[in-house]
Amino acid sequence: MAFDLSEKQLKRTEEELGAKLPHEYREAMKIDNGGEASTEEDDWEFYPIKDTSDRKRLSRTCNHIIKETESCRGFGNFPENAITIAGNGLGDQMVFLKEGESFGGTVYLWLHETGEVQQVAGSFSEIEKL
């Protein structure tokens, strides 16, 4: 079952990140906080944005983008200015890169074994959610 996400919860996450998330990504997460996608590279599961509005939503979003980003930092080669938004289940991540006080809209692939960052899409709307 898809869950929506309130603007209040989005702003709370952005305050914790110290940066604004890309508009297209924000709007997609308001409709369906999480989900899946398929690209030429792989199949992806989007991490939700933490939702503390009730216990059910808190439980559903326990693997939120901030927690997953902190986990990726443990690899040692995760970009300092990145936030992970999706994983392929094998360690590689879709990320946004922070540009000043906001995250840019370009979606990148971070390869966990090498630390390499490659552009996947010019914007979040180019990635078709399933």
Q: What's the short story on this structure?
A:
The protein is of the alpha+beta class. It is built from 4 helices and 7 strands.
How would you sum up this structure, described in words?
This protein has helices at about 5-15, 25-30, 55-60, 65-75; strands at about 35-40, 45, 80-85, 95-100, 100-105, 105-110, 115-120. The protein is about 25% helix and about 25% strand. Strand 3 and strand 4 (about 95-100) form a beta hairpin. Strands 1, 2, 3, 4, 5, 6 and 7 form a seven-stranded antiparallel beta sheet that branches. The protein contains four helices and seven strands; from the N terminus they run H-H-E-E-H-H-E-E-E-E-E. About 30% of the residues are buried.
Beta-strand percent range: 15-25%
Oligomerization status of the protein chains = single chain
Order of helices and strands: HHEEHHEEEEE
Average pLDDT taken over every residue = 93
How many E-type strands? 7
Give the overall silhouette. Answer: globular
Using only CA atoms, what is the Rg? Answer: 14 Å
Distance between the termini: 13 Å
Helix count, DSSP H or I runs of 4 or more residues: 4
Residue windows where pLDDT falls under 50 for at least 5 positions? none
- Helix amount: 25-40%
Helix and strand content put the structural class at: alpha+beta
Sheet of most strands: 7 strands, antiparallel
InterPro entries: Knr4/Smi1-like_dom, Knr4/Smi1-like_sf
Domain Knr4/Smi1-like: 5-126
Organism: Microbulbifer halophilus
Pfam family, one: SMI1_KNR4
